[in-house]
Amino acid sequence: MDEVRDRVWRGSLNVRVSVCPELLLTELSESQDTNLGFVNIIVPRDCYLALYLPNIIQKLESQLRISVSDYYSGWWFEIEGARMPWNFPVGALYDSSTGLNPSNRSSLHQENSVHVWHLMLRHGQHIPNGVIPLKNGIDQIREFWMHQWKQACYILNGSAKQVMSLSKPDTLTFWQSVIHRDLTKFEPIRQKIIPMPNAVRFIPLRIHVALPDVRLVEPICKAVDNERDVELGDVLAREFPEWFEANEESSNIAKPVIQGIEVPLSALVWEVYQQLSSFDGFLHISLCLQAENQTV
């Protein structure tokens, strides 16, 4: 098995989830005990944070003033007051929301980056805009994930046939491999969907930008254009000309980060996709700002 794929699959984040104070029992919200109202967990980078809602809420349930009847419906995460969508890989959300390139995180953003990522857990009847309500628990998450693969398959192959024609056992194994973090079962089924290099129609890309505002860009990207392998810098210079130029020596003010790794602009997009694409079939690219003393 490819070592890079294995390391991507095993990547994780340390997360502290704190409960919104108004959800805590009165005596706890007024308590001086700093060990209450939060839970520390280790989350795979390549997964949906919502998959861990039951585990998080069960650990905190005895401290809540509300009676919990559903571990999915009505819950959402926030970071520094901004809502956190569950429908993108955790790692991509982390990389874009911290807004700093990996080499600077430990020194410039120590508290809320490389060591512990702080999130707030909230609950209410009205889910904020930008967060998909979870009405049907883990079944809804599974259906959403499979729909992402159908989209990715269509972009890659011009048809969703490769996903639609998976046998029921393969479809079940594919999802269970995500739940149980089993790359040995995930990868063979993934390879049934990924075309040969000379048959790639387009590459499924999602570019996450958090500054100056949160947005998602889904560019059209070929593997080869005008008989030339497309580089990551080509795509970014086209989509973000104010931030990137298509050569490595230029003074770019941002860096592409994929799976927590700074990827050079000269990297071939198709090769990067094969090694660093996410569990949902897309290559998620987070644009992280450089410090002033890093631009040249």
Automatic annotation (TrEMBL):
One of its GO terms (biological process) is protein transport. Keywords: Autophagy, Isopeptide bond, Membrane, Protein transport, Transport, Ubl conjugation. GO terms for molecular function: Atg8-family ligase activity. It holds the Pfam family ATG5_UblB. Residues 139-195 form the Autophagy protein ATG5 alpha-helical bundle region domain. It is found in: Preautophagosomal structure membrane. Residues 8-121 form the Autophagy protein ATG5 UblA domain. It is a peripheral membrane protein. Gene3D superfamilies: 3.10.20.620, Autophagy protein Apg5, helix rich domain (1.10.246.190), Phosphatidylinositol 3-kinase Catalytic Subunit, Chain A, domain 1 (3.10.20.90). InterPro entries: Atg5, ATG5_HBR, Atg5_HR, ATG5_UblA, Atg5_UblA_dom_sf, ATG5_UblB. GO terms for cellular component: Atg12-Atg5-Atg16 complex; autophagosome; mitochondria-associated endoplasmic reticulum membrane contact site; phagophore; phagophore assembly site membrane. It comes from the Eukaryota. Residues 203-287 form the Autophagy protein ATG5 UblB domain. Belongs to the ATG5 family. Conjugated with ATG12. Involved in cytoplasm to vacuole transport (Cvt) and autophagic vesicle formation. This is Autophagy protein 5. It comes from Lachancea nothofagi CBS 11611.
